[in-house]
Amino acid sequence: MTKIKPEWLTVFFTAIIAVTGVWALVYAEGQIRQARDEAQIQRLLTLENEYKTQPMVRYRSICAQMRLHGIDEPDEEIELLNFFETVALLANRGYLKDTDVWETFSPDIFSLYADDQEEIELDRKEDPNDYANLALLIPRLEAIEESRHGTTANPSKEDLHRYWESESKIDVGAPIAQHRRASPKY
């Protein structure tokens, strides 16, 4: 009978330990990725819920009524922009996926930003930090919108009027605006 050398046993068990270690690292990476994805979804759902409840619904409704009456930059609009600045900050830092932000908030972000773009740009000339996160996020959302053949990225005056009309009638829990689909090309 041949005797197994201790060196071979050491090599064999070292290899088993190495393979187990690599497998554990791969498994842990998958668990961390899954936990991160779940945290992003939870963050998004929390923000969506916040946007559909008080006080945000009140801000949205009052802002819409004021905009429909020609009042520029009401305080409630600043609250809405600040909300989306926070959403943009989370997206810019990787805590939210751009596509998820686009799916959930883009009609509102595009409409609000388009309606207040001149004032935002003037504010940013005085202080480049004003809405800096939102300014970084908008082009990425526009690229997603374009790649998906959406039509909400550049709302017309009529689109903005319809947007503010619908916002003026919202109530707690009302669904967030849906994407308009591009017209079929014949």
Number of strands: 0
Alpha carbon gyration radius: 25 Å
- Main structural class: mainly alpha
For the biggest sheet, the summary is: none
Provide a count of the helices. 6
Instruction: State the end-to-end distance.
Output: 83 Å
Mean pLDDT: 91
Q: How much strand? A: under 5%
Low-confidence stretches: 179-186
What is the string of SSEs from the N terminus onward?
HHHHHH
Which descriptors apply to this entry?
186 residues, 6 helices, 72% helix, disordered C terminus, mainly alpha
Summarize the structure.
The chain is mainly α. It has helices at 6-51, 56-68, 75-92, 98-126, 132-147, 157-168.
Descriptive account of the structure:
The protein is mainly alpha-helical. It is built from 6 helices and no strands. It has helices at residues 6-51, 56-68, 75-92, 98-126, 132-147, 157-168. Mean pLDDT is 91; it is low at 179-186.
Topology, element by element:
Blueprint: H1 6-51, H2 56-68, H3 75-92, H4 98-126, H5 132-147, H6 157-168
Helix pairs in contact: 2-3, 2-6, 3-4, 3-5, 4-5
